[in-house]
Amino acid sequence: MPAHYDLIIRNGACVLPWGTVETDIGVRNGHIHTVGTASDDTAEKTIDATGLHVLPGLIDPHVHLRDPGDKAIETIPTGTKAAILGGLTAVFDMPNTSPSITDAEKLAWKRGYVESVAWCDMGLYVGGTKTNIPALKDLELTDGVCAVKIFAGSSTGDLMIEDDEHLEKAMRSGRRRIAFHSEDEYRLQERKPQFKSGDPYSHHMVWRDEECAFLGTRRLMALARKTGRPAHILHVSTAQEFEYLKDYRDLATCEVLVNHLTQVAPDCYERLEGFGVMNPPIRGEEHRAAAWKAIAEGAVDTIGSDHAPHPRDKKLLPWPECPAGLTGVQTLVPIMLDHVNAGRLTLARMVDLMCAGPARVYNVIGKGRISTGYDADFTLVDMKRQRRIEESWIVSPCGWTPFAGMEITGWPVATIIRGNIVMRDDEVLGEPAGKLVKFAQ
Ligand SMILES: [Zn+2]
Question: Which residues are catalytic?
Answer without folding.
Answer: 306
